[in-house]
Amino acid sequence: MSNRDTIVAPSTPYGESGLAVIRVSGDDALINSSFLFNNKKLKNRYAHHCKLYSAGQLIDDVIITFFKAPHSFTGENIIEISCHGSVAIVNKIIKLLIGADCRLAEPGEFTKRAFLNGKIDLLQAESIASIISSKSEVNIKNQQRILSGELSNILIKIRNDLINLISFIEHQLDINEEDEIDQTSKLIDVLTNIISPLLKLKNSYNRGKMFELGIKVAITGKPNVGKSTLFNALINSDHAITSNLPGTTRDILSSDFVLQGVPITLYDTAGIRESENIIEKRGVEKALNLIKRSDINIVIFDSLNGKALNYDQKKNILILNKCDDLSKSVIKKGIIHSSIINGVGIDTILDMIIKKINTTKSSSNSTFISSFRQSELINNSYNILSNTLNIIKTEMIDLEIVSFELRESLNDFDVLLGKTTPDDIINNIFSKMCVGK
Ligand SMILES: Nc1nc2c(ncn2[C@@H]2O[C@H](COP(=O)(O)OP(=O)(O)OP(=O)(O)O)[C@@H](O)[C@H]2O)c(=O)[nH]1
Ligand SMILES: [Mg+2]
């Protein structure tokens, strides 16, 4: 157990609310806070109804729960005070605790202590931060899997396999040359098995990032094809101005909604055409830029005015609009025929967005990574291991070099799990969390 000082912070946001929770953590949490509840004896993991007094004045009627170390979130003694959600009451209780040798917790310090006390590893700590900030059900589901240790277990298994492989190679290095048997095919097999789950994780990053941050869907096309009309229909509001004058939309408009648990940011853009008007020109530049950054582009063509062009259908959803004689939308040659103004085709377009998302989340039942830190380390170790495998396959191998490379990669796993992560990186991870987490 550590002898860290006692920290205190509200764990719920400041403001008017039914309840607010204040958390106190440290070896001395009980000693430092017991004056508040008249030194009442607290049973472990039991909700106690108490009245808090200061200088004979009632502060609030509260529920106090005591979590005895080491079976608490931080691994230290924790006191959780559930009071009425008034800023004045929360401030008063915190002020009194600070006067009794507690100090205000830094952002993420409770989670940092859980990490430092070995309750969770760094991947699990990162998943807590992601869960708190996430609006995406798919991401939350994945982060909960990481929090329960799924990603850690995959990486621990790869790390153990690497250690065994290194031991095997070091043993080979100790054997006399005349007793040596060619182990190349064994090395290739073992290393291939180590690399395979790593490659899966490496490839999951783009998908993971998309589910954590949401998916950008841009509505694009020539002027007057009905982009803003579709934008309004999809978000069910008259947010964008529509008119029969080509060049109505100039700036990019955006709106957020959630589709099957995935957060979507939908963008309406300026119609793309050559223009002498400096403002319209700027709008077209912005639209072209957005097309590059978006995950999905809805490209609209006007059936009354020109033909749908052949676009790549991987990232694009193609729509031929103003097919006003249709009672139901049809899809011909991969192009949705719609009459957006009459509400025909909206459902088909939404279905198509879901279909595109689902192809990208094809294996959403397996754990995916969404953190840049994790992705960089996994990429690095993947590159080292696959280069080493190629060398073993193609050249006369020098086992000393192989062993050196494997150790390099081993280091990435230790940093990933937080075993040897530099302090500044650890501080950076926790400081991004909120106070009280
Ligand atoms: N007939 C018909 N008209 C439509 C349909 N959808 C939109 N319109 C009309 O087409 C005109 C242009 O629609 P907008 O949504 O403003 O087109 P836009 O692509 O955003 O145009 P810009 O902002 O100028 O690029 C408006 O008068 C709409 O009412 C449709 O399905 N059928
Ligand atoms: Mg428009």
For this entry, give a set of tags:
seven-stranded mixed sheet; 3 domains; alpha/beta; Gyrase A, domain 2; 44% helix; 437 residues; binds magnesium ion; binds guanosine-5'-triphosphate; flat; Four Helix Bundle (Hemerythrin (Met), subunit A); Rossmann fold; six-stranded mixed sheet; 14 helices; single chain
Q: Quick gist of this model?
A:
By secondary structure, this protein is an alpha/beta fold. It has helices spanning 29-33, 87-98, 109-116, 122-133, 137-147, 150-174, 184-203, 205-213, 227-235, 278-293, 346-360, 372-394, 399-417, 423-431; strands at 6-10, 17-25, 47-54, 57-67, 78-85, 102-104, 215-221, 253-259, 262-268, 296-302, 316-321, 330-332, 335-337. The chain folds into three domains: 6-119, Gyrase A, domain 2; 126-204 and 369-417, Four Helix Bundle (Hemerythrin (Met), subunit A) (Up-down Bundle), CATH 1.20.120.430; 212-360, P-loop containing nucleotide triphosphate hydrolases (Rossmann fold), CATH 3.40.50.300.
Write the layout of secondary structure elements.
Layout: E1 6-10, E2 17-25, H1 29-33, E3 47-54, E4 57-67, E5 78-85, H2 87-98, E6 102-104, H3 109-116, H4 122-133, H5 137-147, H6 150-174, H7 184-203, H8 205-213, E7 215-221, H9 227-235, E8 253-259, E9 262-268, H10 278-293, E10 296-302, E11 316-321, E12 330-332, E13 335-337, H11 346-360, H12 372-394, H13 399-417, H14 423-431
Helix pairs in contact: 4-5, 6-7, 6-13, 7-12, 12-13
The chain binds guanosine-5'-triphosphate and magnesium ion (MG).
